[in-house]
Design a protein that fits this description.
By secondary structure, this protein is α+β, with helices and mostly antiparallel strands. Helix content is 48%, strand content 18%.
Length: 486
Amino acid sequence: MRSVRARAALGATLVVALALIGAGLAVLMVLRANLTDQAGLQAEVTAREVAGQLALDKAYGALDLDDEEDHPVQVTDEDGRVVAVSQDLEAISGTDSGVVRPVPSAPAGTPGDDDDDDRDDRDDGDDDGGRPARGEVSSDDPDFTNGTATVDGHTADYRFAAVEATTSTGVTLTVHAGAPLATEQEAVGTVRGAMLTGLPVLLVVVAGVTWLVTRRALRPVEGIRREMAAITASEDLGRRVPEPDSRDEIARLARTTNETLTVLEASVDRQRRFVADASHELRSPIASLRTQLEVGAAHPELLDVPGAVADTVRLQTLAADLLLLARLDAGEKPGRTPLDLGALVREEVSQRVGDRIPVRVSVPDTGPCEVNGSRGQLARVIGNLLDNAERHADRVVAVSVGADANGVSVEVRDDGAGVPPDERERIFERFVRLDDARSRDDGGAGLGLAIARDVATRHGGTLTVDGAAEGGALFRLRLPGADRPH
């Protein structure tokens, strides 16, 4: 079943069906119990009326058993012998005896001589075994049983109540009186039939309503799906899915989808610009190098070997930058090797023998400034920051390393023209050069600061620019310490 609407309708129908079945069974059980209790109460009343007659020493044949069809009665003595039954009682079950014909015995109140001694013994004893006193009806709750009785050819189910009574001569008799269960059976049957008839209709209604409500609720989802399919087919990331006016989960899904499309569109545009800029940047050194090689091939004496080498180095550097950016964009994780950032700064500065302005280094002597990361990538960040400072400084390039409770920082300062406040974020974009008057050879490809920020971010740090005290730019790199998680 692939349809959400069908699954929702089926699930709701099953839940309602189970709930209704459970509730119906509970109602039937309660109804049956209540009606059975009422039948038992009627049987108890009849049994106590007959027991009262016996307690008054009324003869068995003179008992008033007029309502025998609705309330059949059977009386047994202590030995289980049937001494009296209702007229026209043809069969009975559920009582102490299935006999429906009285056994001849002495009448109540005139017991035989054989029983005198036994009754005298019982009267003289201290314990009467829970039997009622002479001439009384037992006040204990009667015993209830279910059974059947056939009266005048008609068989029905009955609820029987057993009540004990003792005559004035000490004879204990048990009266079994029944009350018909026809009312209970008819009521339960009627309710059960109504439930069996109404349940399917109600389930059909529940399924239909659930189907319609779910269909209406999921209609915006179908609109979102169609629009996404159209976007996929047209590859037009500028399109957006419709957002419903509701404030439910589907509306949030549509908004999130549009936000994702916006981010995806920006990413694709950024990638396209990157490819275009990279192609443009590569074209210049390749064209220059080809021109010099073609001139050298035709006129060897005119070959500019230093220029060809410079173009080759520039092309190699640009290719390395593009390769590093590609790895960063692919999500390459930096290493977790502990390293001393102060020692790394000293090492990078010591290798810069061709700089036009000497770099002043300030590293604290209080101990190593350790961070976790990739040595090669962090060295690249420091080198790019120093290259940028050398390119724009007049007389001063300074780098300092510090550590505090928040991590390790590296600051690179120069006394150049600085960075205008409104351009301090744009300079970290790829292929951005603020000084268009500079030649490409002097100004670079505009990838150094972009690479530096990407590396800093992937190391859990930040790279920002501000104004320096010397009047130029102050680049501040902050990284978490080695003992702190990224």
